[in-house]
Amino acid sequence: MDVRTLSGHPIPAELKGRAHLYGGERFAEAVASVLDVVLLDPPLDLLVALPDYFTGRRVELITLEEARRHAEPRFVKPASGKAFPAKVRPDGLSLPSHLPDGFLVLSAEPVVFAEEYRLHILDGEVRAASRYAVFGTLDSAPLPPMHAALGFGAEVVDHLAGRLPSAVVVDVGIIAGSDRFAVVESNEAWFSNAYASDVERVLDVVLRAAGPAHEMRSKDRPFAR
Description:
It contains 6 helices and 11 strands.
């Protein structure tokens, strides 16, 4: 493949309709239409729609205005993108004040994950996987073929059949003090670190997640940004 690093406009005209994309959200949104690239996103309410068996905690999709009323600690993150750091907030008053009240966020009961794993999903199968954190500290490592995270990931994907884009990232983890797995979050494959995964397998997922519009599959249309 011909790989180029672009810092912004102007975009070479010969790339239109031919390029795939991997990079940050603001850059992707700025150049996707110029490149005629379709960006596939997981549903904003993915965690909310999952039963407790898969989440291990209560998760809500709410507005920032509602989140600002929290009187107790909650884990809050943007429903999409990285407009502010995802972390446990002591209360709603500590949330950013520069964003509009209608900005959508995910609010969850705080839990501690002993280990967290990134799963790159393609066509309903875990294509690549890596550990990426231990008790919240970055610590990437490859996973053995029969690791339990892969089995749990397959359960999640089976449960969500038809409700995920064909290329997506799902993060799962083990809740501290138990042997229980839970879904941490889902992410765009075109904006997700590979960590210690097999990069060739990750590339398969990235290429599908952000590619030429004329190559988009009909089943992925509901997930096009």
